[in-house]
Amino acid sequence: MNPGYLSYILICITVILLVSGWKDALLRGVSARAITLFFIGCFALSEVKFSLGQWTISGPYAGLVILFFFLLLALPEEISVFYLMACGLTLGLFYFLANGISLSLAGLPGSSQLWLGLLIGLLVISLYRNPIAQLACITLCILSGSLLQMYSHASLAGYRLGFGHMKDHWWLFAFSARIITAALGYIALMTRTWFQQWTEARKEKE
């Protein structure tokens, strides 16, 4: 799949879910205005690139840098910024290494990108449940991992930052983390409801 296609597919699915009433399940605590501004910025920067000396930076990478700082400002007070940054940088190193050996996953059913997205999503869920914290951790993961990839390929491709599948990976990781979190929350709610009903039914019989 060509770079960019997966992100547009996931954007369309996300928009459909948000307008269908899934906003609280996917992005609880995030205002509709913030979501609208995010999508406007996402499309505005999708084909932009900046030149800084011998560096060429893609618009999506610059957008993720801005998004990361806004997410840090919106973090709940009980979440440590330093711990989140440590987790994000660690996941960024893992993302860099896993992306480098992704060809070894070619024998698995489905795309290696999908397996990588599922794995990163599960790792982020194990660290945070809050949507803002998850997105901040994923954003830092992508930013730091892409920076490492640029330096590792600088001799061949030059200092090009944020091109290729970076945007696809951010959307895949974020989508996986939020969908799995929402699904687990729904399963937990249904299990709790079923258990309460079973307990009440048992008490009535007694």
TrEMBL record:
The keyword S-adenosyl-L-methionine does not apply. The chain crosses the membrane at residues 6-22, 34-52, 58-75, 82-106, 112-128, 135-151, 171-195. Keywords: Membrane, Transmembrane, Transmembrane helix. This is DUF4203 domain-containing protein. It comes from Paenibacillus residui.
